[in-house]
Design brief:
The protein is built from two helices and 43 strands. The chain has about 575 residues and is an all-beta fold. Strands 2, 4, 5, 6, 7, 10, 16, 17, 18, 19 and 21 form an eleven-stranded mixed β-sheet that branches. The longest helix has 5 residues, at about 435-440. The chain is globular and about 75 Å long. The two termini are about 35 Å apart.
């Protein structure tokens, strides 16, 4: 399938996870082919050390190999073909076990709906850890991106004790992990908050789950989540009640993961000698399906990172840009050292918003920045500039930097009392213009920028007195002028009809749907009005600077099938 294909449907309706109306199938992976579908899935090759996370942060004992992943006939269910992930006693480097893991990162993204996984697990005894789960596509580090565990088994005996100490094969749970301020306590520096902690989140079957299929479901809306198990035709809740969506991370797209881990701190097998599960052991997944839930649900295929063009606003109100970040919606502003810096009161340079801080701890470091909630492709800006306004005392030396999703960073120094990159150091609002070629340095990947603007103290010249400083009107400029498009002649296009209205048009002679977001908000899916061969819909209530991303689905009468167009964007003028 072509990258950027959008599958979505549904009128706006009040969602209910406890009494759901399941609609059309949005996407499925049936695992019936001769091999893994590489357009949707990627098999992991490594033990975590390849991404500087040995054991994948859980002290897992296995090496994940694509050789442990296949599509095979299920031995205990005649006629069923499924994904087979096998754990083996096999040495690769320092690991004495191998297993398999696949994911849809960059290939399939799911937001809302009902996600259904039919799968079986082997005899996990002590040491095996099968899971079907999801991670947020946000490039923010875990747990800020969010984690949804649809099912996982292999819990420690101490965890299973709360359910009456069933065997590991008679206990399956679910979980949701997000970043929460209340979870920022000593010993939990990641601030990860788990809904499974001290909460009933499991199903205990009377019959072992080993080598038989059950179906796991996630019902997901913008306000609630519900996890269930369908066992022998009976659906049972994991949690006693639906979980409230308590983080914006859970209102964003997620990608899918399926794996069979060996050992680790989730299990009672901290070392290879503690693994008692008979090996080889195979986990089977019959299918993964995503359905519409009460009119909601979106599945996007392909890489959704659209290259930015023209001028890209990082933090600005009135400056004309082609697209921009909105604090609290598509970006976050982080202050890194609260011990040295707090909120300031310098008024904005322009508009009504400003980043104003008050440095109060001489001799300590300061820093902060603007981080996008999704990776931004700024490869078109390589020959451009980053312009920003800053008000800071002339005798303060500071650095400006950027960072990519691969943790690469680069910094440019602004010495005290020195005009650098056009910045006049007089303590008043002034403008600096840094060439992107200078700011990017030798390693930063412009195609995947996360920390889109950062400021920090100069480690060699820490301030000797308190002061206030403020940043405003931060804009990336590609250095090229984006011309207005010619009059629309294609089958689908948009037209701005007023300062607040944008009209979508599809001249296709039959039905057409438009799928659009405003400033990367919740996606709207609308059946357009058909009149005389043209379908139209007007989105109102917009304002100058709003970025509308859109695509169409329409019926091609000549070829007799539906067409999904690529995603495009329009900035209100």
């Amino acid at each position: 399938m072509a990258a950027g294909l959008l599958l979505a449907w549904g009128a706006q309706a009040t969602a209910s996870v406890t009494n759901p109306a399941i609609g059309q199938l949005l996407w499925s992976e049936e695992f019936n082919g001769s091999s893994l579908n590489s357009s949707a899935w990627t098999a992991t090759d490594g033990n975590g050390c390849q991404i500087n996370l040995c054991g994948y942060g859980n002290a897992e004992l296995q090496y994940y190999s694509p050789n442990n992943v296949s599509i095979a006939n299920v031995p205990f269910e005649s006629g069923t073909r499924a994904l087979a992930i096998q754990a083996r006693s096999q040495t690769v480097g320092s690991n004495v076990f191998t297993s398999g893991k696949i994911d849809t990162k960059g290939k399939v993204q799911v937001q809302y709906g009902m996600v259904e996984v039919r799968m079986s697990t082997p005899n996990i005894a002590t040491g095996l850890w099968p899971a079907a789960w999801m991670l947020g596509v946000s490039p923010q580090t875990w747990p800020r991106n969010g984690e949804i565990d649809i099912m996982e088994m292999g819990h420690k005996a101490s965890v299973r004790a709360a359910a009456g100490s069933p065997s590991a094969n008679n206990f399956v749970g679910s979980n949701v992990i997000t970043w929460q301020q209340a979870a920022c306590v000593p010993g939990n520096e990641s601030c990860a908050a788990s809904t499974a902690w001290q909460t009933k989140n499991w199903y205990v079957p009377s019959t072992s789950l080993a080598n038989r299929f059950v179906t796991y479901r996630l019902y997901w809306t913008e306000s609630e989540m519900r996890f269930t198990v369908v066992d022998n035709g009976v659906e049972r809740n994991m949690y006693d009640a639906p979980l409230p969506v308590n983080s914006t991370a859970l209102q964003a797209p997620f990608y899918l993961l399926l794996n069979l881990a060996v050992g680790g701190n989730f299990t009672d097998a901290a070392s290879p000698g503690q693994v008692t599960a008979p090996l080889p052991a195979t986990m089977y997944v019959d299918y993964v399906r995503v359905y519409q839930l009460d009119g909601k649900g979106t599945v996007k295929l392909g890489n959704q990172t659209v290259p930015e063009v023209g001028k890209f606003g990082v933090f600005t109100d009135t400056t004309t840009v082609n697209n921009k970040l909105v604090a609290g919606t598509t970006s976050d502003i982080f202050l890194w050292n609260g011990a040295s810096t707090g909120t300031g009161n310098i008024p904005p340079y322009e508009g009504s918003n400003v980043i104003a801080w008050n440095y109060t701890a001489p001799g300590q470091w300061f820093g902060g920045g603007v981080q996008s909630r999704q990776a931004r492709d700024l490869s078109n800006f390589r020959n451009g500039t980053v312009k920003f306004r800053i008000k800071i005392p002339a005798n303060v030396s500071f650095n400006i930097g950027i960072g990519d999703t691969y943790t690469n960073q680069n910094w440019v120094n602004f010495p005290a009392n020195t005009t650098t990159h056009g910045l006049v150091r007089n303590g008043e609002w002034a403008t600096a213009t840094i060439p992107v070629s200078t700011l990017v340095g030798p390693k930063v990947a412009l195609q995947s920028i996360l920390d889109i603007f950062m400021i920090s103290s100069d480690a060699n010249r820490l301030p000797g007195a308190g002061f206030q400083f403020a940043i405003d009107d931060v804009v990336w400029d590609s250095g090229t002028t984006t011309t207005e498009p010619p009059p629309p002649t294609g089958p689908t296009y948009v037209t701005q009809t007023s300062a607040t209205n944008l009209q979508f048009t599809a001249n296709t002679g039959s039905w057409a749907d438009v799928h659009y977001t405003v400033n990367n908000g919740v996606q709207q899916n609308v059946r357009m009005r058909l009149d005389g061969g043209a379908s139209t819909y007007i989105a109102g209530g917009l304002k100058i600077g709003d970025v509308v991303r859109y695509s169409f689905t329409y019926w091609d009468t000549a070829r007799n099938f539906a067409v999904d167009t690529a995603q495009q964007s329009y900035t209100m003028k």
